[in-house]
């Protein structure tokens, strides 16, 4: 499988009053033309890993790595201007909270059309038609009304789908999707997953799919990295996630409610300090 992205020894550090906090600690993995899941409990470093790839960690936070290579080019060696081109065209990210990513004083339509025209130099009327089509593709009902609306008039699930539509306009080589379907109901979730799936299968896009939903990741992804306290503790084939060996992964699986084995109380995850001390497992292939 051809490697799109190669991340080696990634650290994300935040200076605090009590010293430096390491949110991501020496993570290595590769991404091919595949659906790579990242799972782990809240605070385990999933979002920071995604943002670090695009160098979107705000100061005083710092990103360090041996390299973060996009088809052989080290993103860490690029200028801020070169990075902006990468962000606009080659790697897109759907942020966990889409409300913060949309401009609150611009209509949805103006934002999508602007994104489209930036990449194609299309006329306004072509951009309008294409934008409506993009909204339809992510199952937005009444796209003409949504084009005229402002972000605060959208529900959380609509905001997520609008972001997904915008991120797919430049036809990126890599999409980093941070909890992209968590605010969606099951039927819309399926449609959004199908869109991403098609992009991977038909256009050879690489997808990093961040989620805390182990069942969803197991169904949808090809490979999964399991993160704990800023490190990868286990890597497995997605369809074998339920056979995972690491006690943390087992704990995450056992704390999921199951219809076939109902229990009065769900298990509380017991942690072992050794998990966060063990070196990060490599997710490279
Ligand atoms: N600006 C910051 N300053 C200090 N620590 C931070 C900052 N931003 C994030 N962190 C810490 O980095 C760690 C990893 O955060 P991250 O957002 O990657 O978690 P996550 O796995 O995405 O969690 P969730 O499932 O809740 O989204 C957390 O412990 C968080 O508190
Ligand atoms: Mg997160």
Automatic annotation (TrEMBL):
Q: Does the keyword Phosphoprotein apply?
A: no
Report the Pfam families cross-referenced here.
ABC_tran, oligo_HPY
Give residue ranges for domain ABC transporter: 5-254
Query: Mind telling me which GO cellular component terms the entry cites?
Result: plasma membrane
TM ranges:
none
Q: Which UniProt keywords apply?
A: ATP-binding, Cell membrane, Membrane, Nucleotide-binding, Transport
GO terms in the biological process aspect are: peptide transport; transmembrane transport
This protein's superkingdom? Bacteria
One GO MF annotation is:
ATP hydrolysis activity
Q: What family does this belong to?
A: Belongs to the ABC transporter superfamily.
What this protein is called in its record is Peptide/nickel transport system ATP-binding protein
